[in-house]
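Please fill in the sequence for the structure shown.

STRUCTURE ENCODING:
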């Protein structure tokens, strides 16, 4: 899950390796670790816009980006606790340039329009925790149905191809619940350093997702695995029992939050590996 200990652990690790000093790490946080993602080869021209999506609980401010011509499979992106911000706009645009119609949402729209974390991935965790805790199974489900329904209403979204959904940190279990909410429409699910995928409750996200026919990519951070070493085993056993295609891997040396380019623990080589596996998943499941 999202907690400040992850980042403190990483700071101590970097200091022990002699990579940064405490002061340097603080400067990195303050700067937001702003980085540009690698460019897409043969990138499609895209159209991007800020959009409002009506849900049962109000109006969600979102970012929509898609190839400028033709239709493409829809993808719903659930950000981490830092919410909709420039880093996720970059990530969504890069995915659109690869041939997908992408909706990146503000999961906290009930409380505040984006940006909900002023310093992006460098923001302190604790002030954001109430935003995350206000979300639950019911909001996950109603939002998923509303966002997938909105995507299906867009001319750029291919109606004859399944959609994908992907989540980061707290977005991982929401992605799982998205496929459970709209199983006939979503064919691929990806979780990157997802927190709370497995619980001991009958409504655990992993159990709900296993009742679908989707294909899965579950990328686990090394330090998350160290804290919950049995989670990957539970995931593998659950999806194998359900006879679902699921790629489940611990990313060595990648700390919780390693994928978005504005976090202090962004790990470009492992983020690019995760990116390549995401494209492989979508290329297979959304074809």
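FILLED IN BY: designer on duty
SEQUENCE:
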């Amino acid at each position: 899950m999202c907690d400040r200990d992850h980042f403190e652990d990483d700071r101590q690790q970097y200091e022990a390796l002699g990579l940064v000093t405490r002061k340097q790490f603080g400067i990195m946080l303050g700067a937001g670790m702003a980085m540009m993602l690698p460019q897409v080869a043969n990138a499609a021209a895209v159209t991007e816009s800020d959009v409002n999506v009506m849900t049962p609980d109000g109006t969600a401010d979102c970012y929509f980006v898609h190839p400028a011509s033709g239709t493409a499979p829809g993808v719903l992106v659930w950000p981490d606790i830092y919410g909709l911000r420039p880093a996720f706009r970059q990530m969504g645009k890069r995915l659109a340039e690869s041939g997908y119609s992408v909706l990146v949402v503000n999961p906290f729209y009930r409380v505040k329009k984006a940006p909900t974390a002023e310093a992006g991935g460098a923001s302190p965790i604790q002030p954001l925790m109430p935003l995350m805790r206000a979300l639950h199974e019911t909001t996950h489900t109603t939002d998923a149905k509303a966002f997938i329904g909105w995507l299906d209403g867009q001319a750029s979204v291919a109606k004859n191809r399944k959609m994908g959904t992907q989540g980061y940190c707290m977005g991982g279990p929401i992605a799982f619940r998205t496929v459970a909410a709209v199983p006939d429409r979503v064919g691929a699910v990806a979780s990157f350093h997802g927190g709370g995928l497995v619980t001991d409750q009958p409504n655990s996200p992993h159990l709900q997702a296993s009742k679908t026919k989707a294909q899965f990519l579950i990328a686990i951070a090394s330090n998350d695995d160290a804290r919950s070493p049995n989670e990957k085993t539970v995931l593998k056993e659950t999806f194998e029992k359900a006879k679902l295609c699921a790629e489940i891997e611990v990313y060595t040396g990648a700390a919780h939050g390693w994928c978005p380019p504005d976090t202090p623990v962004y790990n470009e080589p492992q983020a690019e590996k995760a990116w390549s596996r995401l494209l492989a998943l979508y290329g297979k499941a959304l074809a």
